[in-house]
Amino acid sequence: MTARATALRSGGVSVIVLSQGEPDFPTPPSIRDAGVRAIGEGLTRYTAVAGVLPLRQAICAKLRRDYQLDYDVDQVTVGCGAKQVIFNALYASLDAGDEVIIPTPCWVSYPDMVALAGATAILVPCEPEHGFKLRPEALAAAITERTKWLVLNSPSNPTGAVYSARELAALAEILRDHPQVHVLSDDIYEKLVYDVAFATILAVAPELSERVLIVNGVSKANAMTGWRVGYAAGPTHLIKAMNTIQGQTSSHTSSISQYAAIEAIGGDQCHVADFRTEFQKRRDLVVDLLNQAPGLTCAVPDGAFYVFPSCAGLIGKRTTQGKLITCDTDFTNYLLDDFGIATVPGSAFLAPSFLRISYASSRTELDLACKRIIDACEALR
Ligand code: PLP
């Protein structure tokens, strides 16, 4: 959708892009300066595959500070974004026939990464009535002897759902009886929660320490998507296997980015609170306006920077040109082609009849975009 939006824009069409998963803020100056300093000091050579030691030390300190979890530097690896780290973990651990439980709606990359590793994704639908969250009964029903991983992503892309400590404890209770199942806890949106507390499963169920891989990164909470720094903390044997994969692929992420990430993770965190406050205002604005659009229903998400409204009420309607809206993709194409708003159809996240709208744009843009969406919905017959 973003590529189509860019093509339309270069043809002179006014398009507002709400399809991208990245903050519109610039990287904070103290972090940029740390990157510049690294260049000035000549820290521009190959690094250790797992990442430079001071960065891994900063990550260990962060995990201790935030969750009282103790990791050794050998239990931490740094890669080119959380994306590469997740890929390394799946590729290093999966064989043909292995199964990975992925609650849906889910981030688009998980099922494809599992397929690339030759294993099977077991998609478990999570209903909007349950806040799009995996229930313990559904987890228990999905586990088999071949289950190797459960992927948890809280706050979620695309729904913004946030698991409470109690909900995670209930999932951990099921996992206790299935020692073959590991948990990939993708905490990339950890800092972007609004009026609720963030919890990570290992802090709730420390007895799972040999089975949980915590994944995080600097992209989302520090406006550093282009710097490409993500990390994982977990059992030594798994981290070692992930480093083996990375050692023969990218080697490591940019040395300059790694030094900037030390500042992002270990330095002053004021910018994160500022981003969070602004995101919350944007979320409230967008939810309020979208619920004025006839045929859309938008719940208030607790985290990340996405809303995930249902467009089920618009399926079966016709545009003023007589085109039938048969599915979420028809609706998002209509929004782009006729009203210049780029969003992502829910089916991309394995949740048809929804659409994902990113609110990582200015309030002025969001206000204009939502008003165009209201017009688009009102024009359908
Ligand atoms: N996990 C989720 C749920 C995401 O939404 C994203 C980015 O969109 C990532 C991981 C990857 O983030 P990065 O590779 O920028 O660290």
Description:
The chain has two domains: 2-21 and 271-379, Aspartate Aminotransferase, domain 1 (Alpha-Beta Complex); 29-266, 3-Layer(aba) Sandwich (Aspartate Aminotransferase, domain 2). The protein is 40% helix and 13% strand. It is built from 13 helices and twelve strands. The strands form three sheets. It has a seven-stranded mixed sheet, sandwiched between helices. It has a three-stranded antiparallel sheet with strand order 9-12-11. Helix 8 links the parallel strand 6 and strand 7. It is globular, with a radius of gyration of 21 Å. The model has no long low-confidence stretch (mean pLDDT 97). Pyridoxal-5'-phosphate (PLP) binds at residues 21, 81-83, 107, 153, 157, 186, 188, 217, 219, 225, 230.
